[in-house]
């Protein structure tokens, strides 16, 4: 019998620690497939964050480094500048990237570092147990805003992709979602482009992935997907914000 | 080897690092170390290395973490408040066993303090500084010549023991110009043995992936990791202590001082010796590992010990631990980022020997002078203005 699918070669054959329904596993698989398809496993380095994806370094069968909360883009900068032929990607959640690591992501983008950043936005702190994130929606409850995010007290969510699009240096910025099969396919295309850009030395590439956290949202996975579609997508519209890859440069 | 030239401390440090094979530098502007990143910005390009002006000290030290992990000889520099910001990354570098070089051109503190040279970061440097149990190899130059030649030593020690090394100098050394030369031929990075642990191509060489991390969550795993590092630290304390002695053969009183304080102390010793006072100097060159054993030996031969420091007394803690109460240990303290004055230290030497208090830091009398309550420090702008 021929298997119609198989585990990507660049993912390690172990179970992950992610909760049932979590989007991280899906995105890991997509990245694994992309690394395989581009044939870059031997020169790829994952920069693992602090947050739920802290052990992502264990799951990818490629060189890895795990760094302080939010500093992934700075670490990736160091690796890429010291070893330009490596393919470096920083994998970060919304607390890591949009809160404590805001300076690092903006400046890596502004410098146009030739790295790939995969940003998982599930609107909450997962690893620490469901605290409010900069991306938490207005009215969405979290353990540090049990009555829901109140704009008077906590302000409004940050739309990172839109914000980074204001910069001149980034070459590719897209927001995707892993809530449905068609969207997962689109997400893979975006991730592939973000890695292909690095292979082609195009420039800073950023993919924001809307994802669910049934555990800390306190809802079942199916309902969590509904929440993503009905509540998150209006705040965080999917789409390409910037694509100035090879065509614009005339390469 | 090179001919003797006139060079500024910070630039000598930067050129010394380049000649030692440093091919990555990330830094952030802060006085009085700005000449280091400024020099690196064009010099790294010249030698095919990388320079990044980071958005913050925190980003700079994390860039260092990434670059060091590729096995490239990598460096960052800063000054006291900036080094405080780097502690997060330094703790990670230590926890992930990454060799690299961090230079601290110390200035006055705490807080914004001022931009003049000081020695207030000794405890921070020698005890780790960030969270967790770890050490840094800390080298303390006392001349532009040593600033230029210590980067090579620092990289070699860092790589030998797979841990970060620090050069702890101060604003006076960084800013002053004097004759210096390089005691070694430039290191060609390609000629260095590649690190077996480096990332960015481990699998390409047909090996398994390499992982760089500082966590250990399994039961008992972290303790094992920290204890393994402790073995290494014990080995370094046994084998890598460096110090310099002057006039200790007949000394009745021993001065223990490092860095620029040792420079002033040498002049003070010349003054005191002319008066017939038998005074010697022990200058720790490695602050960690500290010359504990030698100070212990010397403490049985002298009447007392004096520590001139540009701090409220930080290195003196290590001296007292070495002496273990056998002889009195006195402090001559200039903590406000003032240049240590040889004449004052000479007076302190006499005071220590004769039981006087002049130029010695006297804790008991200080307590009587202390004032508490709501008082506002006088804050007039200085005529010169202040560069921060």
Structural class of chain B: alpha/beta
Number of helices of chain A: 11
C-alpha-based Rg of chain A, rounded: 17 Å
- Please identify, by name, the CATH architecture of the largest domain in chain B: 3-Layer(aba) Sandwich
Mean pLDDT of chain B: 95
> What letter string, H or E per element, gives the SSE order of chain B?
EHEHEHEHEHEHEHEEHEEHEEHEHEHH
Approximate strand percentage of chain B: 15-25%
CATH homologous superfamily (4th level) name of the largest domain in chain B: Thiamin diphosphate (ThDP)-binding fold, Pyr/PP domains
Pair of chains with the largest interface and how many residues each contributes: A-B, 36 and 39 residues
- CATH C-level class of the largest domain in chain B is Alpha Beta
| Low-confidence segments of chain B | none
What do we call the CATH topology of chain A? Answer: Rossmann fold
Query: How many structural domains does the protein architecture of chain A include?
Result: 1
The geometry of chain B reads as globular
- The termini of chain B sit apart by 37 Å
Query: What's the Cα radius of gyration of chain B?
Result: 22 Å
Q: Which runs of chain A of at least 5 residues are low in confidence (pLDDT < 50)?
A: none
Helical content of chain B stands at 25-40%
Layout of SSEs?
The complex is a heterodimer of chains A (251) and B (388).
Chain A: H1 23-38, E1 44-48, H2 56-59, E2 63-66, H3 72-82, E3 87-93, H4 94-100, H5 102-111, E4 116-121, H6 151-154, H7 160-164, E5 172-177, H8 181-199, E6 205-210, H9 214-217, H10 221-235, E7 239-243, H11 246-249
Parallel strand pairs in A: 1-2, 1-3, 3-4, 4-6, 5-6
Antiparallel strand pairs in A: 5-7
Helix pairs in contact in A: 1-8, 4-5
Chain B: E1 5-8, H1 9-19, E2 24-27, H2 35-46, E3 50-53, H3 57-69, E4 74-78, H4 80-95, E5 100-106, H5 122-126, E6 137-139, H6 144-161, E7 164-170, H7 171-175, E8 177-180, E9 211-212, H8 221-239, E10 243-246, E11 253-256, H9 259-274, E12 279-284, E13 286-288, H10 292-299, E14 304-309, H11 315-323, E15 329-333, H12 342-354, H13 363-369
Parallel strand pairs in B: 2-3, 2-4, 4-5, 5-7, 6-7, 11-12, 11-14, 14-15
Antiparallel strand pairs in B: 1-8, 6-13, 10-12
Helix pairs in contact in B: 1-2, 1-6, 3-4, 9-12, 10-11
């Amino acid at each position: 019998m021929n298997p119609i699918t198989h585990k990507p070669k660049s993912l390690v054959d172990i179970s992950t620690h992610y909760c049932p329904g979590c989007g991280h596993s899906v995105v890991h698989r997509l990245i694994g497939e992309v690394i395989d398809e581009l044939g870059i496993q031997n020169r790829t380095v994952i920069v693992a964050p602090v947050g739920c994806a802290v052990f992502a370094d264990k799951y990818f069968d490629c060189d890895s480094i795990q760094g302080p909360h939010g500093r992934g883009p700075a670490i990736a900068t160091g690796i890429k500048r010291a070893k330009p032929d490596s393919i470096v990607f920083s994998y970060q959640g919304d607390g890591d990237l949009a809160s404590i690591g805001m300076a690092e992501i903006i400046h890596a983008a502004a410098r146009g570092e030739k790295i790939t950043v995969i940003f998982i936005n599930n609107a909450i702190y997962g690893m620490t147990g469901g605290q409010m994130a900069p991306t938490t929606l207005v009215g969405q409850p979290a353990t540090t805003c049990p009555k829901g995010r109140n704009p008077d007290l906590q302000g409004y969510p940050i739309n990172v992709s839109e914000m980074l699009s204001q910069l001149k240096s980034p070459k590719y910025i897209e927001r995707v979602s892993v809530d449905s099969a068609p969207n997962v396919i689109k997400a893979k295309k975006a991730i592939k482009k973000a890695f292909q850009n690095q292979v082609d030395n195009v420039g800073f590439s950023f993919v924001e992935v809307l994802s669910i956290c049934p555990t800390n949202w306190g809802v079942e996975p199916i309902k969590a997907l509904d929440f993503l579609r009905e509540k998150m997508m209006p705040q965080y519209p999917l789409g390409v914000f910037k694509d100035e890859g090879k065509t614009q440069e005339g390469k | 080897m090179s001919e003797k030239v006139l060079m500024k401390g910070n630039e000598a440090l930067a050129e010394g690092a380049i000649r030692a094979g440093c091919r990555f530098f990330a830094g952030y502007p802060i006085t009085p170390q700005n000449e280091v990143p400024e020099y690196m910005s064009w010099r790294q390009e010249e030698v095919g290395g990388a320079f990044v002006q980071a958005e913050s000290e925190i980003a700079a030290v994390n860039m260092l973490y990434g670059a060091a992990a590729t096995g490239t000889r990598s460096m960052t520099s800063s000054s006291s408040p900036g080094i405080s910001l780097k502690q997060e990354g330094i703790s990670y570098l230590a926890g992930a066993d990454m060799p690299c070089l961090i230079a601290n051109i110390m200035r006055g503190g705490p807080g914004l303090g001022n931009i003049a040279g000081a020695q207030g970061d000794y405890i921070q440097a020698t005890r780790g500084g960030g969270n967790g149990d770890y050490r840094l190899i800390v080298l303390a130059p006392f001349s532009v010549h040593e600033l230029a030649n210590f980067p090579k030593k620092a990289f070699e020690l860092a790589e030998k023991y797979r841990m970060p090394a620090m050069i702890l100098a101060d604003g006076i050394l960084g800013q002053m110009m004097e004759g210096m030369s390089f005691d070694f031929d430039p290191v060609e990075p390609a000629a260095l043995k590649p690190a077996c642990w480096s990332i960015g191509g481990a699998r390409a060489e047909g090996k398994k992936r390499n992982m760089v991390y500082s966590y250990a969550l399994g039961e008992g795993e972290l303790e094992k990791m920290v204890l393994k590092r402790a073995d290494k630290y014990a080995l370094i304390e046994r084998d890598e202590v460096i110090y310099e002695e002057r006039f200790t053969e007949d000394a009745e009183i021993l001065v223990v001082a490092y860095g620029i304080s040792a420079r002033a102390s040498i002049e003070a010793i010349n003054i005191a010796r002319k008066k017939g006072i038998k005074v010697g100097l022990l200058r720790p060159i490695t602050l960690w590992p500290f010359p504990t054993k030698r100070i212990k030996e010397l403490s049985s031969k002298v009447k007392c010990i004096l520590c001139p420091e540009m701090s409220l007394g930080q290195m003196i803690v290590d001296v007292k631990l070495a002496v273990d109460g056998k002889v009195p240990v006195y402090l001559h303290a200039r903590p406000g980022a003032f240049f240590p004055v040889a004449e004052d230290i000479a007076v302190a030497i006499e005071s220590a020997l004769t039981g006087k208090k002049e130029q010695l830091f006297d804790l008991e009398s200080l307590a009587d002078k202390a004032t508490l309550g709501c008082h506002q420090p006088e804050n007039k702008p200085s005529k010169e203005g202040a560069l921060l």
